[in-house]
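subagent[fold] <- orchestrator: predict structure for attached chain, return tokens only, no commentary.
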Amino acid sequence: MKKIIQTTYTEQEFRQLIREELTAILIDNNKLENKTSEDENFLTASQAGDFLRLKRGSIYNLINQNKIPYQKKPGSNRVLLSKKDLWEWLKKEGK
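subagent[fold] -> orchestrator:
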């Protein structure tokens, strides 16, 4: 059921209301965009395995032996691997 709300705004108040709503939408979209691009720079162990052409178990073995750069997601046990760090590791290892 739709609710109809009738109110009276001056043109200036109405424009300000629209500005505020659009600003909130743009801020939310920017946060989402930044989160997405940030997430795209990190890989899960499975994705890193695909990226390096290794099995997921091999990735975890490298992680457990501290032979590959990784990070734990704050507040969780989830392991993330940075694409940039993996490229640098590959260059260093000469692979």
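orchestrator: received. Logging for downstream: The first helix runs from residue 11 to 40. DSSP finds four helices and three strands in the chain.
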